[in-house]
Amino acid sequence: MKKSVLLFAALIISFITATSQPCLPNGITFSTQEMIDTFQANYPGCTEIEGNVTIQGAGITNLNGLNVMMSIGGKLEIRSNSSLTSLAGLEGLSSVGGNLFLFNNPLITSLTGLNSLTTIGGYLWIRTNESLTTLTGLESLTSIGDYLEIRSNNALIGLTGLESLTSIGGYLFILENISLTSLAGLNNLANLGGI
Asked: What is the largest CA-CA distance in the chain?
């Protein structure tokens, strides 16, 4: 009986280890839709990426294959994706250890998909996303380790989505968002390190 219990416990521990583990200490760059679609098959059990993650490719249309990602130890860059319409697929991501860089994604209208993200260790840079109208999707974000820059998002009309943000370690820059009419959403910001 004792051997059976020990064997069962060993199987459970090995299953947990196999299904949730740190991986990719040197990071990964996704440049094609196929790389995203085959991520789980190529890296089984990879849920906590230790290095940097870059998502950049004209043919990338969705991030659904990344729905197992729970944390990124380094930075996350989502840039120059001319066919990407949504950040859906990143719903499991709760933390980014480094910077989060959202740049030149012309079809994204909101940040829905980042709904579980609570902390960013570095800065959050949201720049030149032509169709971005709202920051909805960041409702769980409570702290940014460095600065927050929101710049040149010409369709952005409000900061709804940042209501849970209470702490920014550095400066806050909101520049050249020509349609922005309100700063509502920053009402709970209590700590701004750059002041």
From this structure: 71
Between strands 124-127 and 76-79, the pairing is unpaired
Contact predicate 149/124, CB 8 Å? yes
**178-194, pLDDT tens digit by residue?**
999 999 999 999 888 86
Q: Which two tokens stand for residue 181?
A: 């009419």
Phi and psi angles of residue 35, each rounded to the nearest 5 degrees, phi first: -60, -35
Q: How far apart are CA 193 and CA 106, in angstroms?
A: 31
Residue pointed to by tokens 């943000």: 165
Could you give the CA distance from residue 152 to residue 166 in angstroms, rounded to a whole number?
A: 24
Question: What domains, with CATH codes, occur in the chain?
Answer: 21-192 (3.80.20)
Closest of 43, 49, 46 to residue 73, by C-alpha: 49
Rg over CA atoms, the chain: 18
> Worst-scoring range by mean pLDDT, 7-11, 45-49, 66-70?
7-11
Cα–Cα distance between 151 and 138 in angstroms, integer? 17
Write out pLDDT tens, residues 110-162.
Answer: 999 999 999 999 999 999 999 999 999 999 999 999 999 999 999 999 999 99
Look up residue 93 and give its two tokens: 């991501």
Spatial contact of 137 and 112, defined as CB atoms under 8 Å apart:
yes
pLDDT reported for residue 191: 82
